[in-house]
Amino acid sequence: MSEIRREVAGSKGRYLTEVDGHTAELTYSIASPALVIADHTGVPDAIRGSGVGIRLVERLVADARAEGFRIVPLCPFVNAQRRRHPDWADAFST
C-alpha cells in the first residue's frame, strides 16, 4: 500500500491511497473548521478486504485529533468503524 494522501479543494476533501494500481478514497465535506462530514468511502472490488478502507478512516480520525475537528459519520462504512472502535469517540460528533 502506498501512503495516504490528503487533498482539499474549498469545502471538499478526500484521502486517497493506491494498492496494486487501484485507488481507494474517503471523501468528506468541511462544514466548519470544527466539523467535517465523512460522506463516502470507495474501495474498488479488486482490493476489498485488504484493510485499505480502515486505514483511510484511521487517518481521518488521526487528523481530527491532531487538528481539533470532529467527524460526522454520514458514510455507512465510517459509521460502522466508529461503532467498532469506541476509543475513537473523542473524534466523532454525537
Question: In words, what does this structure look like?
Answer:
There is one protein chain. This protein has helices at 52-67, 76-84; strands spanning 5-9, 12-19, 22-32, 35-42, 70-73. The protein has 94 residues and is an alpha+beta fold. A five-stranded mixed beta sheet has the order 1-2-3-4-5. Strand 1 and strand 2 form a beta hairpin.
SSE inventory with pairings:
Layout (H helix, E strand, L loop, with lengths): L4 E5 L2 E8 L2 E11 L2 E8 L9 H16 L2 E4 L2 H9 L10
Attribute tags:
single chain, 94 residues, alpha+beta, five-stranded mixed β-sheet, 27% helix, globular
Brief account:
With 94 residues, the chain is an alpha+beta fold. The chain is built from two helices and five strands, in the order E-E-E-E-H-E-H.
Helix proportion range: 25-40%
Helix/strand class: alpha+beta
List how many beta strands DSSP finds.
5
Number of helices: 2
Mean pLDDT: 96
Please provide the ordered H/E string of secondary-structure elements.
EEEEHEH
Q: Order of strands side by side in the largest beta sheet?
A: 1-2-3-4-5
Low-confidence stretches: none
Largest sheet: 5 strands, mixed
Distance between the termini: 32 Å
Strand content: 35-45%
